[in-house]
Write a structure and sequence with these properties.
6-stranded mixed beta sheet; 3-stranded mixed beta sheet; 255 residues; 2-enoyl-CoA Hydratase, Chain A, domain 1; globular; alpha/beta
């Protein structure tokens, strides 16, 4: 039985966590399938955007605790493989949007934070529940902490208390929290905007968002100026400028 399903239309691949029986827990089999789905979307030129979604009422309950409990002391627990998944999403050169229609816990929040954009329902609930299990949110911190306000991170990491979608948007975990009946329309609106960007430009912009500045502003500006000029001179850049001037869609926009 597949634990992750994919479907592609109009340049958007939806990768769906489909293990509702265990609340889409991050088991080793599910994470392997998720990595395979991402690898397929990466190499398919028809895929311009990836939407990470779910079946069932829960987005993701975090690590598979049943599998974790069964692992021997010297065996690899699912949380270790999660690092590979988070890196794959964080480094993915195409935009990734998380669609959250239900609760997310622990490792599931790492997935959300790794995505470039995230849209949830206002009544979705979240919690960094690790401390209540006697463990810490170590792996997911690589993607979560760059998103969260520092005071909010301290409060929610240390208490393990739950919070709703509105708070998640306020502290930066998600991009937007919307009424349930507006979730799919909001996701579709973001996807429509994203596929209008040039593929190389989108990949470069993702790198720009995560770059570390040089030691001085002048050195930083020199690097950025050279990078900008390269994109303007590229075939994609020339096509984009020409399409704008000719008032037509650029050739990379899915028809």
């Amino acid at each position: 039985m597949e634990l992750v399903r994919t479907a592609t239309a109009a340049g958007v691949t939806t990768v769906t966590l489909d293990s509702p029986a265990n609340r889409n827990a991050l088991s080793t089999p599910l994470m392997r399938e998720l990595l395979a789905a991402l690898a397929g979307a990466l190499t398919d030129p028809a895929v311009r955007v990836v939407v990470l979604s779910h079946t069932g009422p829960v987005f993701c309950s975090g690590a598979d605790l049943k599998e974790t409990a069964a692992a021997r002391a010297d065996g690899r627990v699912p949380a270790e493989m999660l690092a590979d998944v988070l890196a794959a999403i964080w480094e993915f050169p195409k935009p990734v949007l998380a669609r959250i229609a239900g609760p997310a816990r622990a490792g599931g929040l790492g997935l959300i934070a790794a995505a470039d954009l995230a849209v949830c329902t206002r009544d979705a609930t979240f919690a960094f529940s690790e401390v209540r299990l006697g463990v810490i949110p170590a792996v997911i911190s690589a993607t979560v902490l760059p998103r969260l306000q520092a005071r909010a991170a301290a409060e929610l990491y240390l208490t393990g208390d739950g919070f709703n979608g509105i708070r998640a948007a306020e502290i930066g975990l998600v991009t937007a929290a919307v009424p349930s009946d507006r979730l799919d329309a909001t996701v579709a609106g973001y996807c429509d905007s994203l596929v209008r960007g040039g593929p190389q430009a989108l990949a470069g912009t993702k790198q720009l968002l995560r770059r570390r500045p040089r030691d001085t502003v002048r050195a930083d500006l020199a690097d950025l100026s050279a990078t900008s000029a390269g994109y303007f001179r590229s075939a994609e850049g020339r096509e984009g400028v020409a399409a704008f001037r000719e008032k037509r869609p650029a050739n990379w926009i899915p028809q």
